[in-house]
Structure formats: C-alpha cells, structure tokens
Amino acid sequence: MRLPIFIAGLLYIAAAAAQTRSDPGLEKMRGKTILLFTPHPDDDTFCCAGTLAMLQKNGNNVRIVIYTNDDKGSYDPEMTSEHLAKIRKAEEEEACRIIGIPKEDITWLQFHDGMLEYANPMDLAEQVTGIIRKHRPDLVMLPDPGSEYVRWHKTDHRMAAGITLDAIRAAEWHLYFPSQRLHQGLEPWKVPMELYYYAGKDENYWVNIDEYFEMKLNAAAAHVSQFDPSIRAYRPTWDPADLEKLKARFRARPKIRGHRMEAFRFATEFNQQ
C-alpha cells in the first residue's frame, strides 16, 4: 500500500507545483472582481499600486479591505491616535483616487494599529468570510503568510495574512458560519485564484507596470505622514525638494528584465493541497 500512496503523493505535489506556476493572466482580465486585503492603509499602495491601477483601468471591479486604521505609526510627540487615524484615512483615499479606485470601494475594519493579533480570531475570520461571500471575487490579493517579511514583521501583517487565508477556505464550505447563508443570504463562494504580495523568495509572477510607475510614485507620495519629515513632525504637504528626493529614491531601484515590475506568488486551489 505504501508505494502507490507514495507515487500518488508525488503526482499530487507535481500537479500542485505546475498549477502554482500557471499564468493568472492579470493583464488580460476584464470585468472581474478583485478583492485586496491589506493590514494597513499603505501596504496596498507600496506593494501593488501599479497592478491595481492596471486592473482598474481595464474595467475590473477592484475593492480594498483594510484591517487597521494605522493610528500608531508616528514619532511626532504632538500627534494623537484619533488625529493620525483621520490623516491615514484621507491619505489612503487620495492614493486610491490617483490609481482610479473610488473611496466607496474601500472597506475599513477599523482595528487599532498593532492590535490586530489580539482580536478574536474566530470572529474576525467570520467577518472576513462574509466579505468574501458578499463580493464573490474572481481574485483575492493578500500578504503571503509564508514569507520572512510577513512572518517576522508586524503583528498586523501576520494576522492579516493568516485570517484572510483561513477565510478564503471557510468561504467555500457552507457549514462554516452557516448563519451568513440563513440570515444574510450569503452563499458559499470558492475563490478561483489567489495572488500573494510580499512573497519574497516564493515570487513566481511579475506584472510589468512601466505604464503605471509614475502613477504609483504619486500614489505612494499621497501617504505623506508615512515618510520623513512628516512622520517625525507632521505636515500635510510635501516640500518640493523632499518629494523629488523620495521619487528619485524609488526611481533608482533596479529594474527587473529591463522593466518596472511588481512581484507576487500566484496560486489556485491552494486550500485543496
């Protein structure tokens, strides 16, 4: 019995690997629903703004779900959490506007920055499962739970990655959170494709964003409070010299195969492996 099981296991692993290497065809997507989950109101911009701009321009329905309000990340001694949350909300809305996503398509789960890992995991998984069942996305984008950056970075990144992945699995089985079907009319939904950002060494798919690179820089610059000098002594606008210095730093980053790229790990049928 062991040999057939072993051979079947090898075939299964090979099939899964081949599947993971397949092409999601993001550049050709039209009329699809894309749901991106981000731990903070800036990770979506820094990791994926070029890809999101391309998807939105091509007539897809791109929606952003933000776990936290990012109300702690400032060195300014005069800053308060309430004020910072308002600032970060406005910055995220402006960054999304620049890449073509209206603020009405942003969902805020409103957890405090750094506190997501202390939320009730089952309640949070149920909430995210409901979001997936409501929007029935063709593609979910999320932080890669296995990458070194996510595993060893902020607690919000670890929790956002794990909860989103658990909710993707739960969403397809009707016996998970059955009250959503009974009381809200939310039917099970099997997510066809997942695209993981912050994937590190496991990246297997690259999106050419040459056309959208300057747009991405402008969207990143909308997050004024995330950068010096505003992160230390808040001011709502850029000094032109500081802004140009920031953009020059981004432009100096090496290209991949001669192009500006955003890198991901693409997978399908992940929950069946």
Main attributes?
Rossmann fold, 42% helix, 9 helices, disordered N terminus, alpha/beta, 7-stranded mixed β-sheet, 273 residues
Shape designation: globular
Q: What is the end-to-end distance?
A: 21 Å
Radius of gyration: 20 Å
| Whole-number count of domains | 1
Biggest pleated sheet: 7 strands, mixed
CATH architecture: 3-Layer(aba) Sandwich
CATH first level: Alpha Beta
Number of helices: 9
CATH superfamily: LmbE-like
- Quaternary assembly: single chain
Strand-helix topology:
Elements: H1 2-20, E1 33-38, H2 43-57, E2 61-68, H3 81-98, E3 106-111, H4 121-135, E4 139-143, H5 148-152, H6 155-171, H7 179-184, E5 193-197, E6 205-208, H8 213-221, H9 240-251, E7 261-267
Parallel strand pairs: 1-2, 1-4, 2-3, 4-5
Antiparallel strand pairs: 5-7, 6-7
Helix pairs in contact: 2-8, 3-8, 4-6
Structure description:
- The chain is of the alpha/beta class and 273 residues long.
- It has one domain (32-272): LmbE-like (Rossmann fold).
- It has nine helices and seven strands; from the N terminus they run αβαβαβαβαααββααβ.
- It has helices at 2-20, 43-57, 81-98, 121-135, 148-152, 155-171, 179-184, 213-221, 240-251, and strands at residues 33-38, 61-68, 106-111, 139-143, 193-197, 205-208, 261-267.
- It has a seven-stranded mixed beta sheet, sandwiched between helices.
- α2 links the parallel β1 (33-38) and β2.
- α2 (43-57) packs across α8, α3 (81-98) packs antiparallel against α8 (213-221) and α4 (121-135) packs across α6 (155-171).
